[in-house]
Amino acid sequence: MNEKKKEFEPVPSLAEREALALLVEELGEAIQVVGKILRHGWDSQNPLTLGAMNREALAGELGDVLAAITIIAQTGRITQLELAQNQAAKLVRVRRWLHHVEIAEMAREVPR
Predict the structure, then answer these.
(1) Are residue 59 and residue 101 in the same domain, yes or no?
(2) Contact 52, 44 (CB under 8 A)
(3) Rounded mean pLDDT, 42-70
(4) How many domains does the chain contain in total?
(5) Could you tell me if 69 and 90 lie in one domain?
(6) Does some domain include residue 6?
(7) Which of 62, 74, 98, 105 is deepest in the core (most CB within 10 A)?
């Protein structure tokens, strides 16, 4: 049987792999802090290290996620405009399903 093989994009470059690996690491760290907030609250901290409060830790990790996203965009595979359009579209779509969070009015329009 002569099956036609599907053609795929080339494997990510070393730069793209590095950027994706960084994003995965930062997302994992943010997820870990979210778990701590859900279990122990916003104003809790590790009693052994007395480090940052969970709120501060999440702000730091989310900042790291945003930096990793910026680095991904610099690889050229995803543009800042695509990110902004998808973010705005998500805010419009998710609005109807949120019960306790109000999204600002500016979230109604998708950038072009």
Answers:
(1) no
(2) no
(3) 93
(4) 2
(5) no
(6) no
(7) 62
